[in-house]
Design brief:
By secondary structure, this protein is an alpha+beta fold. 23% of the residues lie in helices and 27% in strands. The chain has helices spanning 2-9, 14-22, 97-107, 143-154, 228-235, 258-266, 296-311; strands at 26-28, 47-49, 55-56, 68-71, 75-80, 120-121, 124-125, 134-140, 159-167, 174-178, 181-184, 187-193, 202-211, 214-221, 272-280, 287-291. Strands 4, 5, 7, 8, 9, 10, 13, 14, 15 and 16 form a ten-stranded mixed sheet that branches. Strand 4 and strand 5 form a beta hairpin. Helix 1 (2-9) packs across helix 2 and helix 6 (258-266) runs antiparallel to helix 7.
Length: 323
């Protein structure tokens, strides 16, 4: 039932139709209320769906700084700083991107309100990036924009390019990782490459430049699974520098220059940045393309590694060899 309604409605997700059925908001033309998602559906049947008004979230607006790159009445594109959580949770009820967007949109009534997709009055978070990942994110301000963007993500037509610094050297300068991702069967707080309750995941990577003992790469996402790049690169044996979940801590050798050692030690997040975002405007049809430069902490880290490789004496095994 839920799948049929989602496919024929053209704008309701399967999760939303499940919620509507469970709340008694779907009925047959004769007036009989549908109570189960397993109910049979026949060709030509007519159903009446009552969409409830959006409910306000129990989240307080907060005047937090936002790096907005583009905004119109339909959407916002922003460059999220590392350390900013996207959604509120029990452990982080305040200080999130949603708190900041609620405040921003309320104070910018002349340029649009908030998306109510999913039955809640909230800024339409169509996709996410991890708390400690920096870079580009698009947020829907209208239901039409939310649905249009969500469809583009589903169709894999959104262009997303990330910059990452991984441990070690890749055997090939470019490649594709096609491996399903799901919850780690041994640790529910982690994701893993697994065949158990997983979803298809595809990451394309290309080496930007070697920075022994690391490698700077760019990744293009074909799918958008939780922690996808982090999980896929760890699966290859080349986890991201600074990743607290999928990599062991890296301790710079004592004989490296102190300034470089401190720069690496001070970098306390995964080295991942959402650098490029491209999509079709869901209401105007215009193709939009955005780029976000590497943040200061990431740039400082790369400069330190570049300097380290310049200093490396030829034939000295104590230093990483130049790429």
């Amino acid at each position: 039932m839920d799948k049929a309604l989602s496919l024929t409605s053209g704008h309701l997700s399967r999760t939303t139709t499940q919620r509507l059925i469970q709340s008694g908001s779907v009925q047959r033309e004769c007036g009989k209320v549908i109570t189960s998602v397993r109910e049979k559906v026949k060709a030509g049947e007519v159903f009446l769906v009552q969409i409830p008004d959006p409910k306000p979230l129990d989240v307080l607006p907060e005047a937090l700084p936002l790096r907005i790159i583009f905004e119109d009445r339909s959407l916002i594109v922003l460059d999220k700083q590392a350390g900013l959580t996207v959604h509120p949770s029990i452990s982080t009820p305040q200080g999130t991107l949603v708190n900041a967007l609620l405040h921003h949109c309320a104070s910018q009534a002349s340029v649009g309100g908030l998306s109510g997709i999913g039955g809640y009055l909230r800024p339409g978070i169509v996709h996410r990036i991890d708390k400690e990942t920096s870079g580009l994110l698009v947020v829907a301000k209208t239901d039409q924009a939310h649905l249009g963007l969500a469809q583009q993500f589903k169709d894999h037509t959104v262009q997303r390019r990330y910059i990452a610094l991984i441990k070690g050297s890749l055997a090939q300068p470019q490649g594709t990782i096609h491996a399903p991702i799901g919850r780690d069967p041994l640790d529910r707080k982690r994701m893993a490459v697994t065949e158990h309750n997983s979803r298809d995941a595809v990451t394309h990577y290309q080496v930007e430049r070697p920075l022994p003992p690391f490698t700077l790469i760019q990744c293009r996402l074909e799918t958008g699974r939780t922690h996808q790049i982090r999980v896929h690169m760890a699966h290859l044996g080349h986890p991201l520098l600074g990743d607290p979940v999928y990599a062991r801590p890296f301790h710079p050798p004592n004989h490296w220059p102190q300034e470089i050692r401190e720069r690496i030690i001070q970098f306390k997040r995964q080295a991942l940045h959402a650098a490029t975002l491209g999509f079709q405007h869901p209401e105007t049809g215009q193709r939009l393309h955005f780029e976000a430069p590497l943040p200061e902490d990431f740039n400082d880290l790369l400069n330190a590694l570049e300097f380290l490789n310049v200093l490396a004496p030829k034939g000295d095994p104590g230093f990483p060899k130049r790429g």
